[in-house]
Amino acid sequence: MCPVESEGCGNTSVHRLSPVDLPQEYEFLNQSCDPKEIERGTRDQADSQLWMKEKRNRLTASNFGKVLQRKSTPNEKFLSKIFRPKSLEYGKRNEENAKAKYLKQHPSRHFHKCGLVINEKFTFLGARQDGKLCDDGVCGIVEIKCPFSARNFTICQSLDAIQNFCLEKNNDGTIQLKRSHQYYVQIQGQLMITGCEFCEFIVFTQKDLFVERILPDVTFMNAMLVKLASFFKNHAKPLLDRNSSESMI
After folding, report:
1. Gene3D superfamilies from the xrefs (predicted)?
2. What is the pLDDT of residue 249?
3. Whole-angstrom Cα distance, residue 221 to residue 20?
4. Distance between CA 34 and CA 51 in Å, rounded?
């Protein structure tokens, strides 16, 4: 499932040059760290104390959508949900099933593990993908969703049965991830932080598998980065600084 890197993998680094730059006014938010060491040390996320330590002080891509799409000024409850999230057990249990089903459809491809990725341009942000995917000498990232509400449906059934489902049908009959959905924000954040060329977006149910290859949208990323930096400066950093001070008492 996760072979060692070989010549056929291409560039498997998730520490590539990001296509966007942090505005200078927000550079003080950056933290001193070793991104490559953190990524290597957090590949086994559930068993990693380093993962918990490094994630605690960063805004990660899975929460970017919540930040950008919030309706009001963030309060303590909102911030707590972002920096102390609950585990999504069903999704975690089925990630490997999703990968196995994907590889049956694409036997020439393979996955590698991936830890918490931090980009040196904006170290107050982080991204944790569900792996790296090698496809014909090109390596991207993968994001897997296993919605509990869709577990017993096909993808087409889910479109009709589930309100606010993450996918939509276009006029030509093709299906895609909604560009207004939080998952799209998450994936663009992951691509921004890793600098990778694509993200393979997978939706797994017990009856079906949906796959869409998402490419970087630099215009979207630039607008997103400014909003994330502003949120971190005005809301997240004061909370984290306060928590740090209280823990020292």
Report:
1. 3.90.320.10
2. 43
3. 7
4. 13
Q: Rounded distance, CA 53 to CA 68, Å?
A: 25
Rg (CA), the chain: 18
Longest CA span, the chain: 61
All structural domains of the chain with their residue ranges: 25-247
How many CA atoms within 13 Å lie on the side-chain side of 149? 10
pLDDT of residue 80: 83
- Number of Cβ within a 10 Å radius of residue 3: 11
**pLDDT tens digits along 27-70:** 999 999 999 999 999 988 656 788 888 888 899 999 999 999 99
Region at 31 (left for phi over 0; alpha for psi -120 to 50; beta for the rest)? beta
Question: What CATH number labels 25-247?
Answer: 3.90.320.10
Using N-to-C axis directions, what is the helix angle for 218-231 and 182-194, rounded to 10°? 90
